[in-house]
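User: Last request for today: this protein with flavin-adenine dinucleotide, please.
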Amino acid sequence: MDFTLTPEQKTVQEKARRAAGEVTEKAALLDRKGSFPKEILDLWAEAGFFGLSLPKEFGGGGHDYVSYCLAQMELAQACPAAALILHLNHTLFGLAISQFGTPDQKLRYLPPVARGEVYACFGLTEPEAGSDPSRLKTTAVKDGSEWLLTGGKNFVTSGDRARYGLVAGLTDPNQGPKGISAFIVDLKSKGVKRGPVEEKMSLSGANSASLIFNEVRVPATAVLGEVNQGLKVFLTTLEGARVGAAAQAVGIGRAVLKHALDYARQREQFGQALTQFQNIQWKLADMATDLEAGALLTLKAAWLRDNNRPYGTAAAMAKRFATDTAMHAALEGVQILGGYGVLKKYPMEKYFRDAKAGQIYEGTNEIMRLIIARDLIKGGI
Ligand SMILES: Cc1cc2nc3c(=O)[nH]c(=O)nc-3n(C[C@H](O)[C@H](O)[C@H](O)COP(=O)(O)OP(=O)(O)OC[C@H]3O[C@@H](n4cnc5c(N)ncnc54)[C@H](O)[C@@H]3O)c2cc1C
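Assistant: Here's the final one, the structure of the complex with flavin-adenine dinucleotide:
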């Protein structure tokens, strides 16, 4: 077993570290105003992060998924909201098209998304279908060579400005989950309405909005994968996305540790630095250990993906552990800062808010436990 990164992976990691370092202060300011992090995203698009592991022939960087996760671990330290928006383009839309798309679909949709020229989104969740997407109600009715899409999605990251959306709709309602198809929807089409941006506690710059479809015409050529095989497209895509979400959580956790350590070194009480108190040392030691374990689980899942091995359970473990670790680190981080931990002018408060969302998006951690337990019980682990 070799834990050494390849020169290519190290280069991506270092480039992402530099790119993140340049925007840390700006990210904090934008978060306080709840602004969309356009300037940060433009810089990251120019640096090639939007298409990092998408195929080179379609505008991507052609790197492996381990490299992408190493980059996410760095970028999310600076701006988790921008890291999530990038993840939508790169993985939840881009990798889905790369894996399931026809040559024409790849040629049409991947280059602008990989270059970050347009934003893309992923529309699976509905008001009554969250953890259980098989209950979705959006329908698609065939009309000649087109489908008429009617229904709505909520919690759509980038739903307010995305040009393209990967949207799940029922093409055969009698078949339930086996009657769902995946549609690539041009969100400039007639009949698409965007809901207002939700005000939320976490990741305020990564705008969540609902999308309403009223008989939106989608050409048959814009079905991704086979008709009625859409749930597979969405669930497979989510497996890869969870590894990226785990990497984002490692990034947030590392930012927490760095800040808590810097603070504990310089803050004195009872005539000594906080780092001299054993309870503070233990908190920091546990954070460092858990973050290392979270990073290893994440990179293992990414490596399995790169090597075409089954990785759904590994992805669920990485996502569950890394996001819980980031949340726990942020909780302890606030405690280490004492009263200053809850002040908005210090970054710990933001890490605390941002860490929470990771335990929910791309499948809650309860659903991750169900996936792991199911595999365990059937003898797969
Ligand atoms: C910041 C953010 C960004 C998001 N971005 C997107 C996006 O771009 N596209 C998209 O489609 N969705 C997105 N989502 C939606 C997200 O995927 C859902 O919120 C999530 O899947 C949970 O669904 P729900 O909110 O309806 O909760 P529910 O499914 O109603 O769950 C409520 C609670 O019940 C628990 N629960 C549910 N079922 C079970 C079970 N069988 N066993 C045990 N516990 C269970 C859950 O874990 C949770 O704690 C986003 C969410 C957030 C917070």
